[in-house]
Amino acid sequence: MSLKFDPQALPSESINEPRLVRCEFLTADALRNRFKKNVPWTPEKTDEHQLTERTIFRPAAVLIPLLIKEDGLHLLLTQRAAHLHDHPGQISFPGGRYEETDGNSVETALRETFEEIGLPRAHIDVIGSLPQYRTATGYDVTPVVSLVKPGYALKIDSFEVASTFEVPLAFLMNEANHQLRRIELPNNAGKRTFYAMPYESHFIWGATAGMLRNLFHFLKAA
Question: What CA–CA distance (Å, rounded) separates 33 from 90?
């Protein structure tokens, strides 16, 4: 089921009594340690499954690249090219479909990241993965979390990526910056609820915001 709408035009709802992940849990060492701990936590379910009648989902993986900088960790995001079939023009993590030659989701995320933005593997330290995230476009996405050492140079594939930008991780791990937006589905099919995290001129929403919500829950449970 295909549904087209302008997510930015919908009314926004702030989170009641917003929480945040404290700064001491947002360092490179703290994140490495968090993935080593077996702390129970619950991923947040989304409404995306309502927008598809698929029973088979294609495996995919994305990289959540956390850049190590002097003023803290920053998330590197991409804006997809406007002509792409899936999620055109949207904000996303680098990544894509799993290929048999990859062998596993980590390899998919690393390969796709290099193909899309030229981020070298030598600068990427994979520290863990979040639970699979199912999208309305029919993908079962594994988010692979990584720390990125400085000194790299990006080489963007303009066919897939329009641009890249950075967001402080502390901004994204603060619920005061998370919004809920809702849309009425056609044919009395109910409502769709999704998250948005606007940052400067960038509108982060949908699957990308949903995966960031799971990262928030994961780190908040530390």
Answer: 32
Strand, coil or helix: 180: strand
Q: DSSP class of residue 47?
A: S
211 in helix, strand or coil?
helix
Nearest to 215 by CA among 171, 166, 183, 152: 171
The DSSP result for 145-161, as a single string, is EEEE-S-------TTTE
pLDDT value of residue 1: 45
pTM, 2 dp: 0.92
Q: What is the pLDDT of residues 168-178, one digit of tens each?
A: 999 999 999 99
Q: On the CB side of 198, how many CA atoms lie within 13 Å of its CA?
A: 11
- Using a 10 angstrom Cβ sphere, with 0-12 exposed, 13-18 middle and 19 or more buried, the burial of residue 139 is buried
Locate 116 and state its tokens. Answer: 């899309």
Alpha-carbon distance of 27 to 70, in angstroms, equals 11
What distance in Å separates the CA atoms of residue 129 and residue 145, rounded to the nearest whole number? 6
Q: For residue 148, give the nearest of 92, 66, 73 by alpha carbon.
A: 66
